[in-house]
Amino acid sequence: MAVNLKQLAEILGLSQTTVSRALNGYPEVNAETRQRVLQAVRETGYRPNRAAQRLATGKAYSIGLVMPIAPGIDSDIHFGEFLAGLAEESVKHDFHFVLNPSAPDDEEATFRRLAASGNVDALFLAYMRPNDPRIPMLKALSIPFVVHGRSIGGPRDYPFLDIDNTQAFYDATKLLLQLGHHRIALINGPDYLAFSIRRKKGVTRALEEWGLGVDEELVHHSVMADEYGYRSMQHFLERPNPPTAVLCSSTVLALGAVRAINRAGLAIGSDISVIAHDDVLPMLKPENFSVPLTTTRSSLRAAGARIATRLIGGIIGRGDYPEQELWRAELIVRASTGPAPGR
Amino acid sequence: MAVNLKQLAEILGLSQTTVSRALNGYPEVNAETRQRVLQAVRETGYRPNRAAQRLATGKAYSIGLVMPIAPGIDSDIHFGEFLAGLAEESVKHDFHFVLNPSAPDDEEATFRRLAASGNVDALFLAYMRPNDPRIPMLKALSIPFVVHGRSIGGPRDYPFLDIDNTQAFYDATKLLLQLGHHRIALINGPDYLAFSIRRKKGVTRALEEWGLGVDEELVHHSVMADEYGYRSMQHFLERPNPPTAVLCSSTVLALGAVRAINRAGLAIGSDISVIAHDDVLPMLKPENFSVPLTTTRSSLRAAGARIATRLIGGIIGRGDYPEQELWRAELIVRASTGPAPGR
DNA sequence: GTGGATATCCAAAGCGCTTTGAGAGGAAAT
DNA sequence: ATTTCCTCTCAAAGCGCTTTGGATATCCAC
Fold this sequence. Notes:
The structure is a homodimer of 343-residue chains.
Chain A: H1 5-12, H2 16-23, H3 31-44, H4 50-57, E1 62-68, H5 77-90, E2 96-102, H6 107-117, E3 122-125, H7 134-141, E4 145-148, E5 160-163, H8 165-178, E6 184-188, H9 194-209, E7 219-221, H10 226-237, E8 245-248, H11 251-263, E9 273-278, E10 294-297, H12 300-315, E11 324-327, E12 330-332
Parallel strand pairs in A: 1-2, 1-3, 3-4, 4-5, 5-11, 6-7, 6-8, 8-9, 9-10
Antiparallel strand pairs in A: 10-12
Chain A binds a DNA duplex (30 and 30 nucleotides) through residues 4-6, 14-18, 20-21, 24, 28-30, 33, 48-58, 118.
């Protein structure tokens, strides 16, 4: 059943070369011959062996990503959503991914292995940290890559796609300040990730411009699961002087925070304002919250698609994309933000 | 920098054969020679080219999965969680996945392509439907595969891992009946998927054994996103004779349902009971709901790991696993279930 | 010392594809 | 008729690895 090039050529009474050329769109082949070849491919169900193709061309038609994983580590819903974007775009070009799971502390070795294996044409990086060692490493390995996010410090000349996290949280904070809030809490992502650091910076900057400082007691860092949103919020509310507004780094965190607020008997949008960053997760829409959530929005899925486009474009040598892109998140005001109480 | 076998052999003053054998653990190589080779590998950072290896052996050391995707289709959080399980196990054996995105209506062709490409040793299947055409197809292609879930109808002799959905929802329904509930609603997954059908069957069976029938008006099918849980529940509550209990096919659906119940001013566990199926999604734990959720629990991630184990075991010819496994979901009673009101 | 194991190692043949460098044939130009 | 230039096709090399089928050397027993 499974035919290979040689057999196909035999059936057609042609040489492998000609068949190969006909298939790969080389000009020096008769239109009629090409048709015959294509017809035979249809009839036999011939599919080129990718491994052989790869060995011959050096191209793998696939992009590699390292999936952070370990027995204790929770799967990240954001990762899945991003993947969906990558996938959506890749399918158009008949590309696939090679997903290489790896424990975080083994990530460097995994990258090295992946790059050397010849299994992938390009790599994708995320979960950037300050002075991320993977960037110089990949540059040294001279394999194309695109980063989702940005490192902080270290070399600056690498291809990335990021959203302007500082700006987003600056905007959000400013809105709260204008509404009269002074005690603003932040339920942020893990403190070792670059985006968290930038978001906090945005908050800090807005507060300082307003003549206020950050209250470190009102800043929590954690993995983005609703459980932590709940705990952090509960913690904040138990303070002698609780915040009147809270910023969440994800709608998932907001989910927990909202629960804590409800349980405390407070009204969202009047007693306390909530703003979350919305990655546009289809299963958790801010407009569906009991009180629709004000958000800074930027589609993770769109980012995935865009990165796939750039990566693939780079591989097949088509398209010329900017090396560095910084998307601005949109501030969308809904009912969860209102004037500070007592004003 | 990137050394290949030939160069490595040259450096060592050995033939490629010997080096290859030393690396692959063949017995006919001197222990001392093997050490020398391994040392050289360490020094040079030699990595075998997978494509070449694949071409020579026919083994790809990777398993393929088709990721259902399309511009309009939402990413499924359950998919990500399952993937995490697969990954966790695969990383131990240095396997990776080839993720092939595909539009649902193109799935068959994608499978065929994937199988013929030689890129993968085995395939993984999920989102089973009744009489799923992919099963006979893969059998015909004679490529190893394992199904997560089970089809309904069609051939029965194929390798799968499933949870006993009928049993799980039978158990859950029975609990509700024992608590005195008679009007029991079901917010189920998509009606074209086998697991949904089985879950409904479990509910039906329990009701019938109790001398009751299913009220089709109280059964909704939808994608598993909180939005639909909310809508369905709201819909049920607006009926003249609303249900006193509801079963949800996912904690994600329950999230929406709970919101609708809260909004209606009803108390969970007394006015209305809720049971959800819990796939053990780390970002959404039933014990963290404002009223902890009674659930039927079965870890999606564990299923992923188990399937990876079986798939990989089959490929490297190690281990002998049962072809078919049916896991039983655990019924865990929490505060969201209580006696039917007025009893 | 000779035949037969045993232990080590090697040359070479693929695996299925792309691609280089040429050859064959015909049309156009001289 | 010869040369030049296309157009179309082909044989063969090579991608980096595994594996078959020896070759060589060593060692034992008889």
